[in-house]
Design goal:
403 residues, four-stranded mixed beta sheet, 8 strands, binds flavin-adenine dinucleotide, globular, single chain, disordered N terminus
């Protein structure tokens, strides 16, 4: 029997433990239940299929490890943000695959909790956590990425129905999703920040067409999504028709600062993996001691500590009732730039391995090639580096625009 068929052995959800005792219970569950072949630092690694990922994530939810802070009435576990951070630290310490429903769990879910109706919360939230509904995010358009307020996909209301026409692009995972968190224009284009609304669009609705785009790493996760007279019920409109911009900004702040909280700890796992793989080869081990590489590796450690501090500060701010605001841009800028530097360093080191490659170097090369290619996109999605710098200049340093 696999973990996916079994009920979780240790019910972390029911544990009344806190602090370190809770951490140990979570660690124990993850390490016992995560199949070795899912760990990308292991020689047995093979990427899980969509079905396997869905089953694994549903098992994690049953064990109390997703929807941590969501109310139990919506399928969550009603735990604290600090406990959510603990779980993220433990997830990050393992080379686990990213969630196939991170948009549902980390972007759509929180915004539905914030602005959804009671009926929407009951209908959408448990389905996200139980992996019955995978979500994608339909914000970007061919002429509206950084300039999101310039989007042109239009939603027109006819009684209890909205009719949607337009096109989205770079919609990660749309081909495997059941719902799209769609930002569409309900007012005139000139109004820019007004007259925008969020919708939970069912992707099997007539008039929706999803076309995949192949990326440099060979994956087809990106999609274009076309909406041709798609009818969406008022029941699936999220929040008021004029509140879409504020809601979208809230989603972006979450995306930049508090989603995938495990990044720093995963990054640390990657650094450990790189160093241990290099140590198995005499040439690479020699390079680790070379002052040029030693300095860059030390800088990586500093980057990781800064990244951890960003996450821990964000959690403190939120626990104390504050909001993340423009601080999210500091975090986003740092994780994306630092990870890109690190991926470059890893490839530089590993490419100096002599042939034939030691088995551990082969595993590391395969993993870091993927990390390197994916890191190219990290300074683009969730807002480009230039946009983050603009936000920091404008909203944190209060410098005038356009100078
Ligand atoms: C891996 C990946 C996954 C993604 N997933 C999704 C998704 O699921 N859903 C979704 O909606 N979108 C997604 N996106 C799209 C992403 O959010 C956009 O690519 C991003 O917002 C940039 O927009 P753009 O591509 O239109 O570039 P543009 O906005 O055209 O920018 C091009 C360049 O000009 C610069 N620039 C633009 N405006 C300014 C300015 N005012 N000042 C200085 N420089 C500027 C940019 O920084 C950039 O370097 C994804 C992108 C990637 C790479």
């Amino acid at each position: 029997m696999t973990v996916m068929e079994a009920q979780p052995r240790a019910d972390v959800a029911a544990a009344s433990l806190t602090g370190e005792a809770y951490r140990l219970k979570v660690r124990d569950w993850l390490r016992n239940e995560l199949p070795g072949s899912y760990r990308s630092d292991s020689p047995q690694f093979s990427p899980p299929t969509l079905e396997q990922s869905i089953a694994w994530e549903a098992a994690m939810h049953r064990a109390g490890l997703s929807g941590m802070t969501w109310p139990t009435s919506y399928g969550g576990h009603g735990r604290t943000l600090r406990e959510h951070l603990i779980v993220n630290q433990e997830i990050g310490a393992l080379a686990m695959p990213d969630s196939v429903n991170s948009i549902g769990k980390e972007l759509a879910g929180p915004i539905i909790l914030a602005i959804g109706t009671e009926e929407q919360k009951k209908r959408f939230l448990p389905a996200i956590l139980q992996m019955r509904n995978i979500w994608c995010q339909g914000f970007s358009e061919p002429e509206a990425g950084s300039d999101l307020a310039g989007l042109r996909t239009r939603a027109v209301r006819h009684g209890d129905i909205w009719r949607i026409n337009g096109q989205k692009i770079w919609t990660s995972g749309a081909a495997r999703s059941q719902r799209c968190l769609l930002l569409a224009r309900t007012g005139p284009v000139e109004d820019r920040h007004r007259g925008l609304a969020l919708f939970a669009v069912p992707l099997d609705a007539p008039g929706v067409r999803v076309r995949t785009i192949k990326s440099i790493d060979g994956k087809e996760s990106f999609c274009e999504v076309f909406f041709d007279d798609v009818e969406v019920a008022q029941l699936d409109a999220l929040g008021a028709p004029d509140e879409g911009w504020a809601a979208a900004i809230r989603v972006l702040e979450i995306e930049r600062a508090t989603n995938r909280m495990y990044r720093a700890w995963r990054f640390e796992n990657e650094l450990r993996h790189l160093i241990s793989a290099c140590k198995t080869d005499t040439v690479l081990a020699g390079l680790l001691a070379d002052s040029h590489y030693a300095v860059r590796l030390a800088e990586t450690v500093v980057d990781i500590e800064v990244l951890k501090a960003h996450v821990e500060t964000a959690v403190d701010v939120l626990v104390n009732g504050g909001s993340i605001g423009a601080r999210g841009s500091l975090a986003k800028l740092h994780w994306s730039e630092a990870h890109q530097r690190f991926a470059m360093l890893a490839m530089e080191l590993l490419s100096k391995a002599p042939l034939p490659l030691a088995p551990s170097v082969k595993v590391a090369l395969r993993r870091f090639e993927g990390i390197y290619l994916a890191s190219r996109a990290e300074t683009i999605y969730a807002g480009t580096t230039e946009i983050q710098l603009g936000i920091i200049a404008d909203r944190i340093l209060a410098l005038s625009k356009g100078r």
